[in-house]
Amino acid sequence: MPNTNVNTFTGNNESKETPSTRTLTIVADSNIASLDEFFSTQTLGQDAALTVNIVSVAGRDITAQLLAEVQPDVLLIRSVTPINAELIVDNHSVRFVGSATIGTDHVDQAYLAERNITFANAAGCSKHSVAQYVLTAILTLRPQYWQPSSNQPVVLGIIGLGNIGSTLAQYAADLGWQVLGYDPLLPASAFNNASFDEVISQSNAISLHVPLTDAEGMNRSDYPTHHLLNAAALEAMPADSLLINSARGPVIDAAALEDNIEQTRRQVVLDVFEHEPQIAEQLLSKLAIATPHIAGYTLEGKLRGTQMIYDALCEKFNVTPAQSMHNLLPVNMYLWTELKEYPDRLIKFYDIMQDDKLLRAKADDGQVNGADFDQLRRDYHLRREWQF
Ligand SMILES: NC(=O)c1ccc[n+]([C@@H]2O[C@H](COP(=O)([O-])OP(=O)(O)OC[C@H]3O[C@@H](n4cnc5c(N)ncnc54)[C@H](O)[C@@H]3O)[C@@H](O)[C@H]2O)c1
Ligand SMILES: O=C(O)[C@H](O)[C@H](O)COP(=O)(O)O
């Protein structure tokens, strides 16, 4: 068994759906924020006698062997643990899987449904954090966008107008930018107002906010996003348009992107990478800003993710929720209205170039290796979400 932390709690629980024994065993990714504050006797076992065992391990160490040995009732993960038949085929006890993430491309939800295992994710948990990451990247590289003029408007292209895309659109509108948005799965609206071709060919900056989907397989979609930005799409973008990907790495064809940057000298910001957690130094050296998949890593974003799967678990086992992220959050002094008035304070709100510097410092022998990428994420100094 890999390095594990096991905490045992005893409490009271008279849940409507109680686990088959009086012990609730949870295997959890140790990178889930405030795991012990949310998943304890005080917060889960307040109604009837119930013992809660938490086995916390690194997300990549949650293996079929571990699950077969521990036979947990509950599995709590983040984005680095693929959930599929291979992982849980020898496990007969899991009845709830919670992913403290927005993205669900790592989870075979059809298989879980077949096995009658409840699944919950944390939709929208870090929508402001990611939108703020994107704004910071744009305004750091192009501070002139703080003051758009009528003869030089800023046009922000947004692909995918769900929780994050629509939140980003609101900030952009608040800054006086024009938004060109494309989302074929939503009705037309003030922001969902353009075709894919219009967005990529007419924007000063383009930000991607789509889930990772494919033409077939477990993440099948009629509008697949795998390599949505291929060589042809990149070619259709003006050379001076800035491209930001904080969605999932494979939404951009990395090889085509490298060629395109070489030809156009385009400014590109990546928080996610096609071959994550490895990054080739050759690609890294061509990027304007590079960060280790931390766009959503604010204290608020992470705690909201934990809160959402905690609430879903309470509902599953019919336990009254007894913990709230608001009990765990220090005072927040970061106001969007202040930043708008004093743009030179951006670096105090979020110093994105520091994240970029830390990632580049890990490049060695032609690449940033997976262990270093994971370490930067594990030890990330969670920033604060600005109040909008
Ligand atoms: N970098 C990070 O830290 C981070 C944090 C959170 C989320 N994410 C990623 O961001 C993605 C988006 O998050 P969200 O909260 O906005 O999700 P969401 O589900 O609320 O919205 C996604 C939107 O994309 C649209 N879409 C799907 N296919 C499309 C296509 N081919 N073209 C255009 N639009 C399409 C959907 O209709 C939907 O409205 C997540 O799936 C996740 O992978 C990354
Ligand atoms: O989809 C998401 O929510 C994010 O990409 C997620 O926050 C990624 O971080 P991780 O789950 O790997 O910690």
Automatic annotation (TrEMBL):
Query: Which InterPro entries does the entry mention?
Result: D-iso_2-hydroxyacid_DH_PdxB, D-isomer_2_OHA_DH_cat_dom, D-isomer_DH_CS, D-isomer_DH_CS1, D-isomer_DH_NAD-bd, Erythronate-4-P_DHase, NAD(P)-bd_dom_sf, PdxB_dimer_sf
Q: What keywords appear on the UniProt entry?
A: Cytoplasm, NAD, Oxidoreductase, Pyridoxine biosynthesis
Q: Which residues bind NAD(+) per the record?
A: 183, 271, 296
**Record GO biological process:** pyridoxine biosynthetic process
What is any one of the record's Gene Ontology cellular component terms? cytoplasm
Q: Which PROSITE patterns match?
A: D_2_HYDROXYACID_DH_1, D_2_HYDROXYACID_DH_3
According to the UniProt entry, its GO molecular function terms are:
4-phosphoerythronate dehydrogenase activity; NAD binding; protein dimerization activity
Which stretches does the entry tag as region Disordered? 1-20
Catalysed reactions listed for this entry: 4-phospho-D-erythronate + NAD(+) = (R)-3-hydroxy-2-oxo-4-phosphooxybutanoate + NADH + H(+)
| Residues reported to bind substrate | 79, 101, 297
Q: Which domain of life is it from?
A: Bacteria
**All copies of domain D-isomer specific 2-hydroxyacid dehydrogenase catalytic, residue ranges:** 51-317
Q: What family classification does the UniProt entry report for this protein?
A: Belongs to the D-isomer specific 2-hydroxyacid dehydrogenase family. PdxB subfamily.
Q: How does it assemble?
A: Homodimer.
Q: What is this protein called?
A: Erythronate-4-phosphate dehydrogenase
User: Which species does the entry assign this protein to?
Assistant: Psychrobacter frigidicola
